[in-house]
């Protein structure tokens, strides 16, 4: 029996595992320290590719290092640019995209994801999804600006046409503080 509910990051990885196959193209919209990029690189295998974005050189460097240590470098393209420009870097269909929002752990807490660019990137990501593809957002709302970003994302996702997308919100209701939650958007057609 499973000990407890999966936390937000564990749940996001379960969703990735269920939706990504060897050979797929996928996006990590917020590379950060590279943990999601590494996980995706393992899932897509030698014939797939992860397109990983971050606006901070430090994040791209850390992600590059993590991939190198795990001999996964060939499976990822690291892009030092905003995820709002995803469409300038790929037009092929993807099976999944993940956003891990907020600030870089161990980095500058002033550099955070912002709703305007996050929603622009989210719109572009769902356009790239193939049938049954998924976009997953791990949302942190405890920092300044986080609550606003969360609310705008929930408003946007709630308004998506249910005939085209299924939207899931995975949230702990009785934990102290502001635990992260997972918003997942699955393309149905
Ligand atoms: C919570 S961290 C990501 C953690 C990462 N997924 C991991 O596994 O370590 C959020 C990252 O988003 C990046 N970021 C902020 N705005 C961005 C944007 N417009 N485009 C791409 N990345 C952005 C930050 O630089 C930061 O590294």
Short description:
By secondary structure, the protein is an alpha/beta fold.
Give the low-pLDDT segments: none
Bound molecules: S-adenosylmethionine
Q: Strand content of the residues, in percent?
A: 15-25%
Strand sequence of the main sheet, in spatial order? 3-2-1-4-5-7-6
Q: Helical residue percent?
A: 25-40%
**Strands, count:** 7
Overall residue-averaged pLDDT value: 97
Calculate the terminal CA-CA distance, rounded to whole Å. Answer: 34 Å
Helical element count? 6
Can you tell me the CATH architecture?
A: 3-Layer(aba) Sandwich
What's the SSE pattern?
A: HEHEHEHEHEHEE
Compute the number of structural domains.
Answer: 1
CATH topology: Rossmann fold
* Largest sheet properties: 7 strands, mixed
CATH class: Alpha Beta
The coarse silhouette is globular
Q: Radius of gyration from the CA trace?
A: 16 Å
CATH superfamily assignment?
Vaccinia Virus protein VP39
Describe the protein's architecture and organization:
The chain has 189 residues and is of the alpha/beta class. It has a single domain (8-187), classed as 3-Layer(aba) Sandwich (Rossmann fold). 35% of the residues lie in helices and 24% in strands. It has a seven-stranded mixed β-sheet with strand order 3-2-1-4-5-7-6, with helices on both faces. Helix 5 (115-128) runs parallel beside helix 6 (146-158). The longest helix is centred in the middle third of the chain and has 14 residues, at 115-128. The protein is globular. The structure holds S-adenosylmethionine (SAM). S-adenosylmethionine binds next to helix 2 and strand 2. S-adenosylmethionine (SAM) binds at residues 30, 32-36, 53-56, 59, 82-84, 100, 102, 104, 111, 113, 117.
